[in-house]
Amino acid sequence: MKRGMSILLVFLAAAALSFAQGRGGAGGRGGLVAGPDNSPKVGEMAPDFALVGGDWRAADGPRNLADFKGKKNVLLMFFPGAFTPGCTQEFTRAGQDHDKITALNVEMIGISRDMPGALSEFKKSVGARNGFVSDADLTISKQYDAVMTTATPNMAKRSYFLIDQTGKIVWKSTNNTLLSSDAVMGALTENLKK
């Protein structure tokens, strides 16, 4: 019995050490190992995609990301899933900061694999005022290397991409970290004044 308990304790200690050394201890990544960053680089043109979801049905509205070129900057916000605690916090704050963000001529677009109906309900429940895109098959997330590969694979990885009016990526955060409102506003202000 003592030997079995000792083996269990050694196993648990090794598991805890492994977790702390990169599988969740660094940067609050929630148990995810940061792999190589294969996402589009700052300075590159943002990959285009269709805007699919309940927010993009207006006949005269944008149909693709490229439709914002020359008109607005765009902040893409990839997130794991509607109604999860971190995502609820993130988009509640985004709704509260909406006027400050749109004053910078920025269109915020939330992207997850949730279906359009779920995204519409989520938007209402958190008071978000930005648009959402349903990426059910992760096509867009894969273009931006914003797919979780461990812990909960086949979900969008929390990532942010700021695209200027020329269609170029001018800032990104791809380490699956929930950024504070101040950090997002700072990134927008700093990178759009150039």
Describe this structure in words.
This protein is of the alpha/beta class. It has six helices and five strands. It has a five-stranded mixed sheet. Helix 4 (116-126) links the parallel strand 2 and strand 3 (131-134). The protein is globular. Residues 2-34 have low confidence and may be disordered.
List keywords for this structure.
single chain, 194 residues, alpha/beta, 6 helices, disordered N terminus
Offer a quick outline of the entry:
By secondary structure, the protein is of the alpha/beta class. The chain has helices at 2-20, 85-96, 98-102, 116-126, 139-143, 181-192, and strands at residues 73-78, 106-112, 131-134, 159-163, 169-173.
- What is the H/E order? HEHHEHEHEEH
Share of helix, binned = 25-40%
* Tally of helical runs: 6
Poorly predicted ranges:
2-34
| Class computed from helices, strands and strand pairing | alpha/beta
Mean pLDDT: 79
Shape by Cα distribution: globular
Draw up the topology in text.
Blueprint: H1 2-20, E1 73-78, H2 85-96, H3 98-102, E2 106-112, H4 116-126, E3 131-134, H5 139-143, E4 159-163, E5 169-173, H6 181-192
